[in-house]
Amino acid sequence: MNFVENYVKRPHLITAFIFLVVALGAISFKLMPLNLFPDANCPVITVIVYQPGASAKDMEDKVARPIEKELGTIDLVRKVTSVSNDEIAAISVEFEYEKSLDAAATDVANTLQRIMWKLPKGILPPQIFKVSDATIPVVTLALTPKAGSGLDLAKVRQLAENEIKEDLLRIPNVADVEVFGGYTPEVYVVVDKVKLHRYNLSLPQIIRAVEAQNLNIPNGLIINSQNQYLLKVAGEKKVIEGLKGIVVGKGENGGLVHLKDVANIKILYKERQSLFHGNGKKAIGVNILRSPKGHVTTTLASLGKYLPKIEKKYPGIKFEIVDTQKNIIETSISNLVDSLRDAIMMTVLVILIYLANVRMSALTAISIPFVYFMTFAEMKLLNYELNIVTLTAVILAVGLLVDDAIVVIENIERHYRELGKPIHKAAIEGTQEIILADFAGTYTTVIVLVPIMFIGGYVQKILRPLSTVLALALLNSFVISVTVIPLFAPSFLRGKKEKNRFEKILELFDAYVIGSARKFYVGLLDVGLRHRLLFILVAFLLLMVSRKLMPLTGRDLMPPMDTGILKVHFETDTDTSLEETERILRKMEDIIAKQDGLIMFDAMVGSEPGVISFGKGRTPQMGLITAHFVDRFHRKESLWDIEDRLRKAFKQIPGIKYVDVYDFGATPLSSIAAPIDIMISGDDPKVLDKLAREVERRLLKVRGITSVSRTWTLDKNEVHFVVDMHKAAVYGLSPVEISSQMAAAVKGGVASVFRIPGEDGYTIRVRYASDQRDYVNKLKTLMIQSSLGPVPLRELGQIKVVKTQTTITHQNYRPTVDVYGYRSTMAITHLQRQIDRVLKDLKLPPGYTISKEGEVKKMKESFGRLVKALIFAIILLYFSLVPTFKSWIHPFTIMAAIPLAMIGAIWGLLIVGRHGCMPAFMGMILLAGIVVNNSILLIDFAEKALEKGASLREALEGAVKIRVRPILMTASATIVGMIPIAAQWAVGLERLSPLAVVAIGGLAVSTLLTLVYIPILYSIFHDVKAKFTKSA
Predict the structure, then answer these.
(1) What residues form the membrane-spanning segments (predicted)?
(2) What is the pTM of this model?
(3) Residue percentage of the chain with pLDDT more than 90
(4) Which end of the chain offers a freer environment for a tag, N or C, measured as fewer CB atoms within 10 Å?
C-alpha cells in the first residue's frame, strides 16, 4: 500500500488534519498582530548628556568627543554620530544587524561607566536610550484644559508627569510614556539688582541663604528604655510666605534683611525651550511607546480598552489623539485582504476559462483556503505579523499555488476518463504517478527564495518574511495537492463525461484562442528550427537593447508611497526666540488646517532632555509638523500634490530659513535622514560652512529636488566674555568664579526645592529680573562679588558677540555638515546622476572629503547583497536540475528562460513607470524560479518523445502543441493573481508593486518566447551532443 493509497482509503486522518488546519489557521489569522511594515532598523543606542550652561562647543570638546571615541571601540559598531547643542549632546551608535538591541545597550552602559571620570563634573547622569521601530510612538495625545476646569497647561503638565503617565504605564503592552511641551513650573526668586546693592548683598549670598534655610536636617535618633524618636531640624518651607521670611543678611542699622525685601517670589513656568501643539492649539504632548518585542496593534487594542477609563478620571482635561499609525495600518491591511479575495476570484476565473470544467475548477478553488490556513498557522508559529510584506507574499502565492492542484487534478481526470479506472483508483494512482514531478516543479521555485532568507542586512530584514511566507505557501500547496485533492476528487470528478452548456461555451476559448496559439507557435517553431542562428541573434539583440534601456527606469532603495501622512521639518532664522518661532508656526498651521481631507495634525518645536521620542538635538528654532489626511482612495490629489502646494505657501512666510515637506516613509529607514544626503567632513567650521553653502546652491539647480537644507549654519550669535586676567587677579577672582556668578545672574542659580504637600517639588531658581539681565548691554553693569567688594563686570574684561555654529555634528569622530535634499517621486539614481554632474568640479581643500550618505549608500549595499543572492539562487537552481534531468547540459537549456524573462521585466518597469528597486530585484529572483517550470514542461515532454522513437523535430513540435495550454494557463493564472499588487490596490503597496510588475512583465514575455526559444536551444544542444557522441 503506497503513501497516497494509505490515507485515501483511511480518510479519517486527512479529515481530522483538514479540520485542525482550518481551526488553527483561522485562530492564527485572528491572533496575528497587524503592522505596516516589518521592524527593519538596525540596532541604535543614543546617549544624551546634559550640562546646564555649557555651550555647544564645550559639549563637543568635553562630552561628545571623549564619549564617541570610546563607544567606537565596541564590537560590531557601524558608525558613531554626535550632535552637540548648547547644554546638550546626543551621541548615537549604530550597530550591525547581528548585534541585539539589549546587548548593544549593555555594552554602551559599561563603556560609559569606564569613562565617567573623563567627563566634566557639572554634567547630569547620562541617559541611554534604545532606538528602534518601537521608538516611534504608537499614539500621540494632546492634553489641554477644558473650559471652566480651573486648570492651565502648567497644571496639566504636572498631572501628566505625575499621575497620567503612571496610569498609562499600567496599561498592558505599553513600555514607556514621554511628556513634552514646556510649562514646567518653578519657584522664581526674582532679585531686584538695585535693592540688592542697597543692602550690599550679592546673588551668591541670596542663593546660599535660601539653600541653608529651606531644608530638613536629620540629627539621628533619641533612644531610651521606653521610646525611640527621630531628631531633625525642620527648616523646609511649605508655603511661599515661608520663603519670603528667609533671612538673607543685615542692614546698615543692624536690622535683618529678608528675602521679600530684595526679591519677588512666585511660581512661574521654567523658560521654555520647547512647545507642542495639537490640531493647532497649545497643548501638552504625550507619546505612548510599545516595547521592542511588542506589537503596534496589541498596544493599540490595550489603549482602546483602558484610555477611556483614564479620561473619565480627569474630567477637566481633554484627551485628543493627534498622531497614530492605527488608521493607516487598519486601512492597508483591510485593502490587502480585499486584494487577496480579488486575486483568488480572478485566478479561479482564469482556471475555469482554460479548463472549461466547473467541477475541476471548483476542486482547485477549494484547495486554496486550505493552503492559506496552513500558511497562517505557520506564520503564527514563526511570530510573524500581518503586514504589507507578508500579505503581499500571500497574494503573490495565489497564482503559483493553483499549479500544484491543477497538475494533480488533470492527472486524476486522465486516469479516470481516458484510462477508464474507477474513480478511487484513479485518484490514488493519478496522484502517485506525478507526486515527484509535482514536487520538482515546486522546489525549483522555492529553492531560489532560500538565498534571500540568509542574505543579511536590511534586505534580509524586509524580504525574509516575504520569501519565507511565499516558500511556506508553495510547500503547503504541494502538501494539499497530494493529500486533500485525491481525497475530494472522487466526490467532485465522479459523474457524466458530457459537458454542460456553460462548459461548452467555455470550450470555445480553447478551440479558438488556444487553438490559434497552438498553430501559431508550431508554425513559428518550424521557421525557428530552420533559422536558429537568426532567432538567437534576435533574442540576443532584444536582451542587449533592454539592458541598455534599464537605466531609464531609475533605481530606488524602496519606492515612495502615498500613506496620507506628511511631515514638515522647518527651521526659523538663527537666534529667533521660541515665542517668535511659535508665531511663525501658527501661520503654517493655519495653512495646513485649510487643506481638504485633513484628519489631524500636531507640531513640536525644540527638544527636552531625556525625551527622545519627540526628537533629540532640536533647537528652539527647529520644528516638526505631522499631518494626517484621508487615504488616497478618498481624495482627488496625491500626497505629493498637497506637499507642493504647502511648500510654496510656507516659502512665503517671513522668518523661515529652511522648510522640508515630505511624505511619511520618504526614507525606508528612520536612520536615513533624507533621500539625498551629501556629507562634507573636515576640521574647520568656516571651511565646512563655505563648502556646504556651495553644495546647497548647486543642489537647488537639480530638477526633481523639492527642497534643500543642512544640519547647521555658521550664523548663530554667541556672547563671549573675555576675562582680563590682570584685572581679575587684582580683585582676587578667577575665570571660574566670574563664570559661576555670571551663570547665576543670567540663567539663575538653583538654590533648593520647594515642596507642597501632595505635589512634586518645584525647583527654586534665584535670578535677576529679565529687564536687568536679558540684554547684552545690561551685562556690563552686572555686579560680581569679589574679595574687595562688588565690581561691575565691565571692569573685569570685554564682551564680544561672535558668530558660531547653530549645531555641531560629527560622524566617526570627524566634524561634518550634511546637506539634505528631498524629492517627490523621481528615482534616486536620476537625481544622483544630476547631483554628480553639478558637484563634479567642486574643489575641496586638502583634508576635506565629500561623500554620499543616506539612501544612496544603503542602496549600494543592498543591491550588492541582492546580486549575490541572484547568483547563488541560479547556482542552486542549476544543481537542483542536474539530478532531475540526469544531464549537465539540459539545465542550461531550461535556465535560458531566465534572460528571456529579464527582457520582459525591464520593459514592464519602463511601460508602467516603476523604478528598479529592492522589491523589483526580488521579483527578478522569484522569476528565475517560476519561468524554468515552463521550460521543464517542454524539455520533459521532448525527452520522453525522443525515448519513444520520435524525431527531434517531431518531439519539439509535439511538446509545443501539447504543452501550450498548461503553460499559458499557469502563466495567466500567476499574472492575474499578481494584478492587485501591481495595480496598488492597497495603501502602502506602492512599496512592493515593482515586484509584481517585474514578475508579470517577465512571465508574460518569457512565456511567449519560451515556447519558441527553448526548443531552438534544445535542438542546438542536442545536435552538439550528437556530434560529440558520433566523434567519440
Answers:
(1) 12-29, 348-374, 386-409, 434-458, 470-493, 533-550, 866-882, 888-912, 924-942, 962-983, 995-1021
(2) 0.88
(3) 42
(4) C
